[in-house]
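Is this the right way to post structure tokens for a design question? Let me know if I should format differently. Anyway, here goes:
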């Protein structure tokens, strides 16, 4: 019996018993679909979760502070800090020249006074007791100035609204600390959008006797969480430079507790080219004499936890496939019992053991490939549904969504190929029993 005859005979057997074939294919499809869905979600979630940890800044971001590290402590995991060291253009150039550095973004910090809208006004939304009769309460803070074209390389997360436009001197973003000053619920960040605040930078007069302020108005167009510094305002570098120039134009403010800015930049945000090179880049920057912070330990911990999740999900998928394999084995064992007459007739007319073996293996392969294709499609659809549910839940909790995307091509191909191989393995025992069945015993069973 040729291969062609064996394939035709297998197809006839599959079509002749549609109910059993459909149940067998369904078992394979469910096992394959579950494995593809779990494996894909595990692989995709690991990359997306790591990326999500870096929303408002990549996971490979390193913050460089304007502090000197004691040379004797450079190789320490927690080096002791010394006196402040200015971060200037030379520092910027040295860091950019380091290997494994992808981008370097400057951050500026400027001391300012903030005058929020009147507490009892409609813009503020505060309706409680007001000992100041509705008057605004100014407070001191710091404005963090950045280049918003590089916002994706910075540890900033937008909680409501948006970031100011690049170069804007009339738009600002605030952190949740602002809500303490205007007595609003920080769980409702959109409440302060549209408020107009006044920002003043202090300047000591040349004679050192008075302090003047350079005031400007800014509309709050965003609420953010940021790890760039202790400032409660996030503005464009254009606005921060103007405020800084105003302060530097005055006299020495030390007598008023207002020291002049000692550094061109308050910090740098350096992005390494991969997670594996974060430690190397940090060590090189530390060798330059600056303290650094990075989420590498957090990322490593998250990766270890995700690997545990991968193992659990993989084990569940393997169990599902084993159940499908048992289904194939049971179906073919039943088929052997039912086809004893056919096996006997085939052997009586000259069929060899290998021909009967081929017959059952091809039938199992048809069921395995069909179930693998259907199961892979089912797994991809499951990923889409789970992605939608996860995104909706995260958004409802006030968090940024995680798009799981679709199943990786490699995982899909492995799902189909794995189902086919598993079907052949599951069919090996029943096929061998059928092939070794003596023709006289098979015919005598009639």
């Amino acid at each position: 019996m040729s291969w062609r005859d064996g394939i035709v005979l297998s197809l006839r057997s599959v079509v002749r018993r549609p109910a059993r074939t459909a149940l067998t294919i369904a078992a394979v499809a469910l096992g394959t679909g579950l494995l593809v869905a779990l494996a894909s979600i595990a692989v995709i979630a690991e990359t997306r979760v790591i990326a999500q940890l870096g929303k408002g800044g990549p996971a490979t971001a390193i913050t460089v502070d304007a502090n000197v590290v004691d040379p004797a402590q450079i190789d320490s995991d927690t080096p002791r800090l010394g006196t402040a060291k200015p971060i200037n253009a030379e520092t910027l150039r040295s860091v950019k020249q380091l290997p494994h550095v992808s981008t370097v973004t400057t951050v500026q910090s400027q001391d300012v006074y903030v005058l929020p809208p009147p507490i009892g006004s409609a813009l503020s939304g505060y309706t409680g007791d007001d000992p100041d009769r509705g008057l605004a309460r100014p407070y001191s803070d710091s404005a963090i100035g950045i280049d918003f074209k590089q916002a994706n390389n910075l540890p900033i997360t937008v909680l409501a609204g948006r970031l100011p436009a690049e170069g804007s001197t009339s738009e600002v973003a605030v952190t949740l600390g602002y809500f303490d000053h205007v007595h609003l619920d920080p769980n409702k960040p959109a409440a302060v959008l549209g408020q107009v605040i006044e920002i003043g930078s202090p300047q000591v007069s040349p004679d050192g006797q008075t302090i003047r302020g350079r005031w400007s108005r800014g509309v709050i167009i965003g609420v953010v969480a940021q790890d760039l510094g202790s400032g409660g305002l996030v503005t464009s570098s254009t606005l921060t430079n103007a405020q800084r120039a105003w302060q530097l134009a005055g006299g020495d403010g030390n007598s008023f507790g207002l020291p002049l800015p000692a550094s061109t930049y308050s910090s740098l945000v350096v992005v390494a080219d991969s997670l594996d090179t974060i430690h190397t880049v940090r060590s090189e920057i530390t060798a330059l004499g600056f303290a650094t912070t990075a989420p590498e330990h957090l990322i490593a911990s998250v990766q270890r936890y995700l690997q545990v999740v991968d193992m659990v999900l993989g084990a569940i998928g393997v169990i599902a496939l084993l159940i499908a394999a048992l289904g194939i084995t049971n179906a073919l064992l039943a088929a052997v019992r039912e086809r004893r007459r056919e096996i006997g007739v085939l052997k009586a007319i000259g069929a060899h053991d290998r021909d009967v073996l081929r017959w059952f293996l091809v039938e199992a392969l048809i069921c395995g490939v069909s179930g693998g294709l259907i199961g892979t499609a089912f797994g991809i659809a499951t990923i889409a549904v789970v992605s939608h549910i996860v995104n909706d839940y995260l958004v409802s909790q006030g968090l940024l969504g995680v798009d799981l995307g679709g199943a990786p091509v490699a995982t899909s191909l492995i799902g189909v190929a794995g189902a086919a191989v598993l079907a052949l393995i599951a069919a090996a025992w029943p096929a061998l029993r059928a092939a070794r069945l003596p023709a006289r015993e098979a015919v005598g069973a009639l």
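Format looks fine. Someone answered above. Worth noting: The radius of gyration is 34 Å. Residues 68-82, 121-128 have pLDDT under 50 and may be disordered.
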